[in-house]
Specification:
The complex is a heterodimer of chains A (about 150) and B (about 230).
Chain A: E1 2-5, H1 8-20, E2 27-31, H2 38-48, E3 63-67, E4 71-76, H3 84-90, H4 93-97, E5 102-106, E6 120-126, E7 135-140
Helix pairs in contact in A: 1-2
Chain B: E1 3-7, E2 13-18, E3 23-29, H1 36-50, E4 60-66, H2 70-87, E5 90-95, H3 96-101, E6 110-116, E7 121-130, E8 133-144, H4 145-153, E9 159-162, H5 165-175, E10 179-180, H6 190-198, H7 219-226
Parallel strand pairs in B: 1-4, 4-5, 6-9, 9-10
Antiparallel strand pairs in B: 1-2, 2-3, 6-7, 7-8
Helix pairs in contact in B: 1-2
The chains are: A alpha/beta (about 150), B alpha/beta (about 230).
C-alpha cells in the first residue's frame, strides 16, 4: 500500500492511523535514508498509540520505551555497530520484538536477520518529482507471521 | 548427594532439590505473564524450603547451559553463578536438549527434543535411550523444522518428539507419522536437569567458568552465509 505525503503532518497522520490498527507484539521495520522522515513518522506513530511523552530520535540511546495504550518501543539500529544482531540480542531483542508491546525499528537493515517474520515494513522515500517536503510511504504487510511468538 | 537444579532456558521456569534416589521438591511455572527475572529466585527459595534444606546442604548446583532463549539462559546462568559464588559450590552445566530428552523414559527409543527458536527455527537434537542412558545421535543444532526432520529420518522411522517446539510443529510431526510426547512432558523440568546432572558430576565447574551456550554462529560467519558484508 503506497501513500503520498506532502508535508510532515501528512506523514504523521499516516503513521497515526497505522499505529491505531496495531496489535500487541507487532513489529514495524522502518526503511529510509538520512532525513527521510523516520523520526517524524515515529512521532505520528506514537501519537496513534496514545503516547503522551515527546518522542525524540533514539539514535544515541538506541532504545526508548514509552507507555501508551500499549508499550511502545522505539529502536534505532544505526549505532549498533558491526555485530548489530548480537548487540540487539544483548539489549533485549527477545523482550522487545516478542513481547506485548509494539516495536518501531529505524535503520532496520542492520538487524535484518532478527526481524520477526510477521513484521510490517514501512519505506519512506523522497518524492519521485523531487518536491522538497514530499515523500512516498510504502507499507508492506507480510502474508504470514511466525509459528511461535513467545519464547520465555 | 544433594543437587539444587534450575532451568530458565525456555518459556517455563523450574527448580528442584534432589538426590540420587529422591526428588525432594520440584517447582514448575509456565505462566507467560511473569518474567524469569521475577520468578526464578522465588522458585529456588521455594524448592529449598519445601525440601527442608538450605543452599549449604547442596553438593552441586545444576543449571541448563543452552540452547534456549538468550534472556532465559542469562538469567539462569547469572543466578547459578551468584549462588555458586556465595556458597562456594560448583555448577554442573546441563545441555537443555538432553535434559528435555531425559523427560522420556522409553528404553530403546529415539528421542527428538525440539525447542522453539525464532523465525520458524528450532533448537533440536536426536538421542537414543539405552539402559537408562542417553546416547547423542545428532548434535544440538539450530535449523528449520524441515531440515531437522530430514536428519532424523536418516536414523529412525519412529522418533518421539518432545519439547515446546511441538506447539508450533505438532501437526507437521504427526503428518510425518512420528510420535509426540504427552503434553505434561513438553518443557524442561528441573528434576530431569538434576537427574542428568548426577550422571555428569565430572563436568562440574566453578561459577566463574560457567557460561551460557547460545548456539548461534558468530556474526561474521552469519554474514558470510547470508551473503552480506557489513551493511554500511
Amino acid at each position: 500500500m503506497k501513500y503520498e505525503s506532502s508535508c510532515e503532518r501528512d506523514t504523521m497522520a499516516i503513521a497515526e492511523s497505522l499505529a491505531k490498527a496495531s496489535a500487541p507484539g507487532q513489529v514495524y521495520a522502518l526503511y529510509g535514508g538520512l532525513g527521510a522522515g523516520k523520526t517524524v513518522f515515529a512521532k505520528g506513530f506514537a501519537k496513534g498509540l496514545g503516547v503522551a511523552e515527546t518522542v525524540t530520535s533514539p539514535t544515541f540511546t538506541i532504545i526508548r520505551e514509552y507507555q501508551g495504550a500499549l508499550p511502545f518501543y522505539h529502536i534505532d539500529a544505526y549505532r549498533l555497530g558491526e555485530n548489530a544482531a548480537d548487540e540487539f540480542l544483548a539489549l533485549g531483542y527477545e523482550e522487545y520484538c516478542y513481547g506485548d508491546g509494539v516495536c518501531l525499528i529505524e535503520w532496520a537493515p542492520y538487524v535484518d536477520e532478527l526481524l520477526p517474520f510477521g513484521h510490517i515494513s514501512v519505506t519512506i522515500e523522497p518524492d519521485a518529482d523531487k518536491r522538497e517536503n514530499h515523500r512516498s510511504i510504502t507499507i508492506e504487510t507480510p502474508e504470514r507471521g511466525e509459528k511461535s511468538r513467545k519464547l520465555g | 548427594m544433594n543437587i539444587l537444579a534450575m532451568d530458565a532456558s525456555g518459556a517455563a521456569v523450574s527448580t528442584a532439590v534432589l538426590s540420587e534416589t529422591s526428588v525432594f521438591s520440584e517447582f514448575f511455572m509456565n505462566n507467560g505473564a511473569k518474567k524469569h527475572a521475577e520468578t526464578l529466585m522465588t522458585l529456588i527459595s521455594a524448592a529449598l524450603d519445601a525440601a527442608g534444606a538450605s543452599l549449604n546442604d547442596m553438593d552441586y548446583i545444576a543449571c541448563t547451559s543452552g540452547p534456549g532463549s538468550f534472556t532465559g539462559l542469562r538469567i539462569g546462568a547469572a543466578t547459578a553463578k551468584g549462588l555458586a559464588a556465595g556458597s562456594n559450590k560448583k555448577i554442573i552445566p546441563v545441555p537443555a536438549l538432553a535434559a528435555l530428552a531425559y523427560n522420556i523414559a522409553n528404553d530403546n527409543a529415539f528421542i527428538a527434543p525440539i525447542m522453539d527458536a525464532r523465525r520458524d527455527q528450532v533448537y533440536a537434537a536426536l538421542f537414543k535411550r539405552q539402559n537408562g542412558e542417553l546416547i547423542q545421535v545428532l548434535n544440538d543444532g539450530a535449523m528449520s523444522f524441515r531440515d531437522f526432520a530430514e536428519s532424523v529420518s536418516e536414523h529412525t522411522s519412529n522418533p518421539i518428539f518432545v519439547g515446546d517446539g511441538i506447539m508450533s510443529f505438532g501437526e507437521n510431526i504427526l503428518s510425518l507419522g512420528y510420535a509426540i510426547a504427552p503434553q505434561r512432558f513438553n518443557a524442561q523440568r528441573a528434576s530431569s536437569v538434576g537427574s542428568l546432572a548426577i550422571t555428569m558430576i565430572h563436568h562440574a565447574i566453578s561459577g566463574a567458568e560457567f557460561s551460557p551456550i547460545y548456539l548461534r554462529a558468530p556474526q561474521a560467519e552469519r554474514n558470510r552465509l547470508n551473503g552480506n558484508g557489513d551493511p554500511r
